[in-house]
Fold this protein.
Amino acid sequence: MKKIIYTCLMIAGTLTFSGCEDYIDVNTNPNGPDALLQPELFLPQIQSELAVAVQWDGRFTGFYTQNWAYSSGESYSLNLHNNPLSDSYAQLWRAVYWSMGYNLSDMIESGMNSEKYDFVGVGYILRAYGWQMLTDYHGPVIVTEAFNSSQRVFNYDEQEVVYEEIQRLLALGIENLERTDGLSPQDSGLSEADLIYNGDRDKWKRFAYGLLAINAHRLTNKSSYNADEVIGYVDQALAGNQDDATIRFEGTVSSNTNFFGPLRGNIGRYRQTKFMVGLLDGTNPELTDPDLIGADPLLEDSEEHLKDPRITAMMAPSPDGKYRGISPVVGINEWSPEESDLVPKNFWNEEGYTGTSPSPQIYFFNNDARFPLMTYAELQFIKSEAAFISGNKDVALNAYQKGVSSHMDFARQYAPDPSIFDTRREIYLSSEELYPSSAGELTLSKIMLQKYIATWGWGFFETWSDMRRYHYDMDTAEPVYKGFELPDPLYITNNENPAYRARPRFNSEYMWNKEALEVLGAFEEDYHTYETWFSKPE
């Protein structure tokens, strides 16, 4: 990164100390130089903008999936699945169309011109990732007419079109990463510019196959769904936790700090939910084992069910040391002022709504913590679900076991008590109820609840897409997300329906692209409850 900054300064210095005549001679565009910058000057900012946008909008998606809830309860409308008209809930829109936008196009073009084909491959993959996250969040988006500088208004594409474009871009990405001509990552500058994989082409290819798996697996409700194709993609994707796609933050000033860190102060009023805590403390009806009551190694928990070892790494304790969650409807109002010791701390492990910098560590909510964009555990649960619903229970069990074990490895790095973590893990993995050793004991609910745990706090659009694929378990006798309950009542304008999509960005669309929105029905108060294409049975 220092070399990138130094390069930028050198370019600025060259322009400063060159004569004005020379500068004018090389430009026909009065707004800036005609020549494209080298691709390594684009990539770090593009990756950072994309990650922050996922975190920014993921905050709100996290309310729908009950990753967390706002402390005030039902007075905060997103707790009840509202989606107001505001730019605040469309940062990903801004990132894909503006922050990345033409910059990403220029990076790809510059990479082609300078024979830095690794940048071209990464560029296509990042474009595909942006489209996947954006359409998972908003539903219909602008793709076919995007980045057409001759237009001022744009028509929306249905998700089916977007999904096909994602597949095309990923194929191009893999193709360019496999090129043997051009410069190596070390010579091209990718090794230094890449904040995710440090220029490792093989890991970027595995990331692309992981995204292909995600793209194909969204369509479980379609007659065209192909479980074997999904499994094949996963098998070519991330090979272990060492391949997890995480982005680094410096954590020194606000602009280079993890969006969820205490320095940014963005999640101070968020608290873990009862649903999430229930998945980790043995009270969830699917992830419980009566034989493990009294099995916890901590003396103070000796009368309770064994705690999932991940609870201390991922959850914030209350001041009295116990782990509790809040409901979206009640919030922290469940407890009186005299019961403040029972209120869960914030995700910086502190009481109140602010945190010190750095804060006592809770999971990846610190200033310089790496933030996940795709993990091996996530993909193993995708494989497990695909195999399970296609009847291949042995493959499903093997992937389930790998998913649980690998996420425990991932979480352990954040554990404040490694020895207790390891003891609990050993007991947990010996339970046939929690960690089946035979395919006949595995259930779809176990797979999806363990995936929920593994994607908690970062895989917002993945989790929300899963819940929408299963239609929030509404009107089903056998729920997948056992223990999960929608807020009752939902927000008044929802007409008793949960959220299925976010509204497009207010300023660019509702002010300047009205006719296109009218075609979608996006001016209706309950537009955000319209079901998305990928989740509809066909």
